[in-house]
């Protein structure tokens, strides 16, 4: 797959789109050297900057626990130039609050969100692994493709995580969460094979309703649903659509919108109609193609009605994956 250059919402020179997380700058190029981190951020000592996105910087960081042990976390910090922008602060605090409302193995776990509102940072489990975008890129570079069953296992795990967030009820009230930015960069695979969805930075919920278009800030417009592109209210099937595009790309091993500028992608997605993977030469079972076409239907009510349904459909097709297989793949790709 060719690395695409595209103007992201936040940074017109962002070359990370569409596969890679912000820590990765494209084919063959080294990871960016970040400036040394500040000595302290709240009660944490940042060690190394992992990534920078449109809204936040991510560090590995340490803190002392009460029992004297060191705690290692991923620290997400709102970027300094956004600290005074109310809408950005609101979104950041909302992300931290949401994380605290979840409890699922496929959703990144919060560690300490108490300073999110006051100091603009929160701590979460450090996922020792890589973004799916980077994994695909790496596999491509050394001439490997993730086997179909592994790709399906990743999508099943994320679908399970999405079902959890979509169904979340707090104080007897449905939260109505929509992630709004399901894309390869926000799916992380740990070296031990764990699969995790990260980045609730643009998520919507009962706690943060959004009028108008919810734009992802990582330049991941290629995964947005037609209704998201049109600026309409979003329901859970919008995330089903985005996950369907991830599956489409994992099965065809191609970018759906190759070399198209951002505005044209939005215009094209808004019109609907995703091409069948087989027209792109993908050799996949017809049932799997039907799953992809159903998930990415232009009309929300014609898609799987929830994420569990797409996970169930995939489980019926693909035999249960041994978790050790992903770990082996990570070893193969990154050692
Ligand atoms: N808990 C975590 N552990 C390790 N790496 C992480 C974690 N959360 C995010 N990252 C990495 O940092 C990148 C940016 O984080 P993300 O939350 O997606 O921020 P942004 O909103 O800027 O996209 C991710 O794509 C991923 O590579
Ligand atoms: Mg992100």
Structure description:
The chain has two domains: 18-125, Phosphorylase Kinase, domain 1 (2-Layer Sandwich), CATH 3.30.200; 129-334, Transferase(Phosphotransferase) domain 1 (Transferase(Phosphotransferase), domain 1). Mean pLDDT is 87; it is low at 1-30. The protein is globular, with a radius of gyration of 19 Å. It is built from ten helices and ten strands. With 335 residues, it is an alpha+beta fold. Helix 6 (236-252) runs antiparallel to helix 8 (286-295). 34% of the residues lie in helices and 14% in strands. The chain has helices at residues 86-101, 116-119, 132-141, 148-167, 226-229, 236-252, 262-271, 286-295, 307-317, 323-334, and strands at residues 45-52, 56-64, 70-78, 110-112, 121-125, 129-131, 169-170, 173-174, 187-190, 195-197. Magnesium ion is lined by residues 53, 185-186, 199, 218.
């Amino acid at each position: 797959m060719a690395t695409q250059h595209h103007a992201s919402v936040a940074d017109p020179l962002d070359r990370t789109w569409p596969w890679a997380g912000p820590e990765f700058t494209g084919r063959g190029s080294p990871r960016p050297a970040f400036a040394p981190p500040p000595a302290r951020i709240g009660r944490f000592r940042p060690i190394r900057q992992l990534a920078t996105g449109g809204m936040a910087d991510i560090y590995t960081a340490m803190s002392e626990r009460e029992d004297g042990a060191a705690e290692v976390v991923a620290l997400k910090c709102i970027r300094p130039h956004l600290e005074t922008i109310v809408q950005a602060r609101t979104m950041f605090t909302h992300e931290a609050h949401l994380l605290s409302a979840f409890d699922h193995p496929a959703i990144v776990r919060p560690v300490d969100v108490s300073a999110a509102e006051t100091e603009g940072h929160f701590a979460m489990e450090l996922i020792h692994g890589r973004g799916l975008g980077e994994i695909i890129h790496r596999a491509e570079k050394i001439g490997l493709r993730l086997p179909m069953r592994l790709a399906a296992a990743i999508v099943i795990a994320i679908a399970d995580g999405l079902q959890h967030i979509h169904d979340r009820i707090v104080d007897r009230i449905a939260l109505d969460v929509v992630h709004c930015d399901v894309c390869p960069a926000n799916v992380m695979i740990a070296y031990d094979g764990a699969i995790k969805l990260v980045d609730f930075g643009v998520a919507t919920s009962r706690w943060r309703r959004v009028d108008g278009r919810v734009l992802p800030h990582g330049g991941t417009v290629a995964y947005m649903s037609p209704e998201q592109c049109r600026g309409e209210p979003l329901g859970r099937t919008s995330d089903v659509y985005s996950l369907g595009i991830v599956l489409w790309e994992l099965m065809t091993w191609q970018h759906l919108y190759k070399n198209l500028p951002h505005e044209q992608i939005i215009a094209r997605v808004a019109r609907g109609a995703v091409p069948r993977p087989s027209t792109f030469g993908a050799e996949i079972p017809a049932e799997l193609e039907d799953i992809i076409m159903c998930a990415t239907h232009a009309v929300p009510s014609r898609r799987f009605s929830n994420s569990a349904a797409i996970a169930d459909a995939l489980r019926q097709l693909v035999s249960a994956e041994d978790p050790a297989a992903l770990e082996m793949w990570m070893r193969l790709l990154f050692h």
